[in-house]
Structures are given as structure tokens and as C-alpha cells.
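Subject: sequence -> C-alpha cells, single chain

Hey, anyone have a minute? Need the predicted structure for the following. Not urgent.
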Amino acid sequence: WSATDSARVIVRPHWLSFLLLGVYVVLIRLPFLDHPRPVHGDEVEFIAAIGFPTPYPVHHPGYPLWVGLATVIHKLGFSPYASYQVMSVFGSGLLAIALCRLTSRFVDYRLAWWTGFALGANPIVWFLGTTALNYVFATALVVFILDLCMEARQTRKKQCLWYAGALLAIGSLIRLDLIAWIGLPVVFVAWGSQRRFSVAGLVGVWLGLTLNVILRDHLYAPKYPHSLRLGEASGLSHTIDVILATSVFKLGLVDGLFRSIAKLSVYLGWSFGVGVLLILALGWRSMPVSARPAKLLLWLWCAPMTAFILFIHASEAGHMLPLIPAIYLLLAIQLSSRCRPRTARIIMLV
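Reply:
Had a minute. Here:
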């Protein structure tokens, strides 16, 4: 995991190139903000929650920071829907920048930049980046947290583990899924570090869960009875029931596991198109030895999340979104090891 584990030339990026990438992604979103709405039922509930916390929450398990930020933006003069769109569009730019940063730890920076470019133009990322849904913003946090973990492992900046833990705790208030998505890799990386930094991951996961429990108990309190939908329980048991509604434990192998496998295959196929064939052709097992740190990172990134999707909860494309940047990282590493630099960048651009 150290910098010497990977035989690569580190090209230092300039902050202006990150800014250019983020601005590009934001600009290509702007012509599509006035699309038919809502695109999902959750958007209706998010809009109804504007004015946090009086009419909140309206959707289990609750997204207090997402709704709270939208309320602040709404007070600046934006419509309720546009208040969420501002964060989604901004999150799109952050996501491209985050992937560029993370990828540049393993490949030439120019290829890393085009990898962020490709993610910004990915159809499902593009679509969700113009809605009131919080998947793109949450995925940007996922990649930034993993980038902080790699920063801590590849340099002496071990304090980055505390930053990663804090960002995980705060991000869980936007989507509680973040703990299930990347809690394990954060804990794993922190645990293998120096003693005074080894608890950072555990603290981040514990703090995120604690904050969510405290806020849920407060926001679902009887003093806001009008915020609960008719006949809907307000406790933790209901939240668990919602999460397990698509699980193999409740629906069995056919309607649970096999249906989730079909959903994941369709969503990834739609997201990458013929690029799936390229990824399969390059192959996971043939990754170069120098990419071993990246291979471990991808295992920690994708394995827990894929298991959660297949066995616990997979209702829509947004739940698979954090896997998309991981696949782009894998593709960039493969292209870097098999092609000339210019050829690799052209393929990524295409």
C-alpha cells in the first residue's frame, strides 16, 4: 500500500486542471435542468420536507443533512426542486474531481483527468446529476473518502484517516448507506495504520450511526405527528423492514437474489454500453503486479457494496451508482498497463 508498491511516475496535478474538470461537468448539466419532474417518488417527499425540521421526515430512514441543506438553499431564492438540483449538479463536478484525484495515484495524471471526464459524461451519472435525488452527491463523498484513505496509506499524512472518518460520519446524514457502502474499507485502512490513527475508521462509523439514531428519534418524535404518513410506523423496525423489502431474506432466491443480479447487470450494462465488453476483455486477473494496491482498494470498495446490493437492498439504479467510478478506475489501470499513454487517453475519451 505504500508509494513504493506501485511502479509508476507520479505526475503532480495543478489545481486549475481540477477546477476546469469540475466546471466542465457542471456546464454540461445546465441545459437539462428543466426536465419533466418528478423523476422519482422520493423527490416528491424531499420537496415536501423543505422547511426542515417541521414537516420532516417524510421518507425513512431520513436524510436530515440533505433536506437541511436544501432548506438553506431554498431560503436563498431557489425553488424547492432547484434547491436539490444545485447540490446534485455541484456533486457531479465534485465526483469527477474526486475520481481524477484517486485515479492519479495509480496512473498518469492526464489519463486520470480523462477518466474523470468520462465519468462526468456517463449517462446515469449525468441523469441523476440533474435531479433532486442525492445519489451523485453521496457517491462524490464515497470517492473523496477513499481518496483520503489512499492519501494516508501512500504518504505520512495519517491525519487524513481522521478526515475520512469525519467525512463518513457527516456524509451518513446525507445517505445512511455510506456506512454500508464504504464503512469496511475505512475501518480496514485505519486499522492497519499507526495506533493513534487506527481507531479513526471505527469512530467514523460509530459516530455516523449515533448521529443518525439521535436525529431519527428526535425528528420522528410525536411532536411532529403530521410528518408521518397514514398508518406508517415511525420506529427503527419500519426502517429495517424497508431495507429488507428487496432482500434475499424476505423474498428468497428467485425474487430476491436473482432479481437483484438481473437489476445490477442491466444497470451496469446500460451505464457502460459496449464499454462493458472492453472491461471484460481486459480482464481482472490480468492486472499488472504494480497495480496490487489498487486491486486491494477495489476489493474493499466493491465487494461489501455488491454483497449489500445482491443480498440486502437493490431497488433502483442509484444504489449501484458508487460502483460506476470503481469500474472507471479499473479500466484506467488496465489501459495504462496495456496501451501507450496517448492511446489510453483516446480510448477513455471515446
